[in-house]
Amino acid sequence: xxxPKIDDARTLxxxxxxxxxxxxxxxxxxxxxxxxxxxxxxxxxFKHLKHRISQMMTVARERQLAAVSEETTPQxxxxxxxxxxxxxxxxxxxxxxTEVEESVQADEQESVSEPEAxxxxxxxxxxxxxxxx
Length: 133
Known about the structure:
Layout: H1 6-10, H2 14-36, H3 44-93, H4 99-113, H5 126-132
């Protein structure tokens, strides 16, 4: 018996998909119960059922992500348009910087991004080094 194809899951509606996932999980529970009581005759059903559940859950997640991306796409475009307008406005209102101002800004950015190193000596523990700061 071949594994189920994902195209079968893609043809289901959202409600059928949710019902199918729930039914498959219940069936998986029944298989586990049969296995525990040593009445399971076809152990390959675990593999097929888990495969089917994962396919249905994948399709459900794809649909969820598609719905979210449709909602956020128009908002993203308006934000990028306003950001372009703000960049253009600030570029025209600020005077050009001198080389000295540019180097000072570069030094400030470097000092902010570099974390300070703490010195730990063999005589002191790391907790003592933190207390000294």
